[in-house]
Amino acid sequence: VKFVDVDTICKNATNPSFCSTLLNSKPGGGSGDLASLAEYTLSVVHTNVTNTMNQIKELIKQSGSNVAATTHYKGCLFNFGDLGALGAIGAAQDALKKRDYKFAHDDANQISFFMFLCISGNLPSDPPFHDTSLLPKYVDIVDQIAKIIVRILNYLI
């Protein structure tokens, strides 16, 4: 069982205060072993991904005849779904239960990759979509949480 201080985990994060607030929001505070902290953080990102998928479904409905918007949001929905971030989260949770921290780490890294695809498009030839919705903010939050999970798992590998 390994323990690392929250400040140590968060000191080089993209947004240290977001990282610290997230990890300290764990019931009982940010204390606890790294595996339980990773488990907690995976459950938080799972909730965020699920909620964001609901938002994306609404954006698809609202985009109506705007083909570019509909295509973008459907691509994001795919990247958030079972073959995307949601699947990677489930795989990371399973690997964590088996104490296979390397696989959990790799799966957590995949979450960030799927967030990148949502924003940039699935193909290099995809033109960037100027998204004025809150989706880019939600994607950024999921990405930050995924990177925090990777940081935690780095200590367990």
From TrEMBL:
The keyword Disulfide bond applies. Pfam families: PMEI. Residues 1-152 form the Pectinesterase inhibitor domain. Keywords: Disulfide bond, Signal. SUPFAM superfamilies: Plant invertase/pectin methylesterase inhibitor (SSF101148). One of its GO terms (molecular function) is pectinesterase inhibitor activity. The keyword Cell membrane does not apply. Belongs to the PMEI family. This is Pectinesterase inhibitor 2-like protein. It comes from Trifolium pratense. The lineage of its organism: Eukaryota, Viridiplantae, Streptophyta, Embryophyta, Tracheophyta.
